[in-house]
């Protein structure tokens, strides 16, 4: 079945890349095709935060303030709140102090948009896009905070490709973007993500981690399997135009196939 939405014309499309974190590409199909990235590029926000922690300019214990209201990056557009369907009900009430480490955890583990916006304001959009560039994800962009509809209407978006997601995850797990300590911290967070698609069939005891993303008509996932390092298997799949059950079945099937082939 097909699904339409703001970011999908309803035409079913699947793109993927399967590789080793070292860079060896094992299989690919339409992996340079542009997609709305949804939440997958929160992985780049995580990298930007890890670099701040490495530099000593941020601390996991530093205080942030929970909020669902943010200022648009478009001059004169004022404030916006997270769209009702995307609200993170697990966050404490607005104004509640939270450690930065807890905010980052919600950003990755439950893909909280509010948490992502809080971290993005802390590290800055340029740092997030520098993380993408340093990973070689040159067709990707993190253009705005989530739910900033004024910025979206002005052309600011989140874009990616299956190839770029694979390059970004590969650079993370191979330790090319942060210190060994922060690399393992990032991999552990990715291993706790609650939305498992590509990693659904990973055998018990085998390390893995992933970052998924979805909106109407869009369903993506990028994952690593195996001990973090250059030999880890990395899988990135982007889909457009499928309803959610069909897209999830596609992701799970390709994840299982990649594990079998590898």
Description:
The chain is α+β, with helices and mostly antiparallel strands. The protein has one domain (13-261): DD-peptidase/beta-lactamase superfamily (Beta-lactamase, 3-Layer(aba) Sandwich). 35% of the residues lie in helices and 21% in strands. It has 8 helices and 12 strands. The strands form 4 sheets. A 5-stranded antiparallel sheet has the order 2-1-12-11-10, with helices on both faces. Strand 1 and strand 2 (25-29) form a beta hairpin. Helix 1 packs across helix 3 and helix 1 packs across helix 4 (125-134). The radius of gyration is 17 Å and the shape is globular. The two termini are 30 Å apart.
List the helices and strands and how they pair.
Layout: E1 13-20, E2 25-29, E3 35-36, H1 42-55, E4 63-65, E5 69-71, E6 79-81, E7 97-99, H2 100-109, H3 113-123, H4 125-134, E8 141-142, H5 149-153, E9 158-160, H6 162-173, H7 180-191, E10 208-215, E11 218-225, E12 233-240, H8 244-261
Q: Could you estimate the helical fraction of the residues in percent?
A: 25-40%
Total strand segments: 12
Main beta sheet strand tally, sense and closure: 5 strands, antiparallel
Which fold name fills CATH's third level, the topology? Beta-lactamase
CATH C-level: Alpha Beta
In short:
With 262 residues, the chain is an alpha+beta fold.
């Amino acid at each position: 079945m097909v699904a339409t939405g703001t970011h999908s014309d309803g035409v079913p499309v699947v793109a993927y890349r399967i590789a080793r974190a070292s860079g060896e590409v094992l299989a690919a199909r339409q992996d340079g095709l542009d997609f709305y990235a949804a939440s997958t590029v929160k992985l780049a926000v995580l990298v930007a935060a890890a670099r701040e922690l490495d530099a000593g300019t941020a601390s996991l214990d530093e205080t942030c303030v929970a909020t669902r209201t943010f200022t648009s990056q478009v001059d004169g557009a004022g404030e916006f709140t997270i769209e009702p369907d995307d609200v993170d009900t697990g966050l404490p009430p607005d104004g509640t102090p939270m450690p930065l480490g807890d905010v980052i955890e919600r950003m990755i583990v439950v893909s909280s948009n509010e948490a992502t916006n809080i971290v993005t304001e802390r590290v800055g959009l340029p740092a997030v896009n520098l993380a993408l560039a340093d990973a070689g994800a040159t067709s990707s962009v993190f253009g705005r905070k989530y739910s900033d509809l004024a910025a979206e209407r002005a052309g600011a978006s989140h874009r990616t490709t299956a190839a770029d997601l694979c390059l970004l995850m590969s650079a993370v797990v191979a330790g090319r973007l942060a210190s060994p300590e922060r690399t393992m911290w990032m991999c552990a967070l990715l291993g706790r993500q609650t939305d498992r698609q590509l990693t659904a069939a990973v055998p018990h005891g085998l390390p893995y981690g992933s970052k998924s993303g979805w909106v109407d008509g869009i369903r993506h996932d990028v994952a690593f399997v195996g001990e973090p390092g250059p030999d880890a298997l990395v899988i990135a799949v982007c889909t457009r135009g499928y309803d959610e059950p069909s897209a999830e079945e596609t992701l799970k099937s390709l994840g299982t196939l990649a594990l079998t082939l590898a």
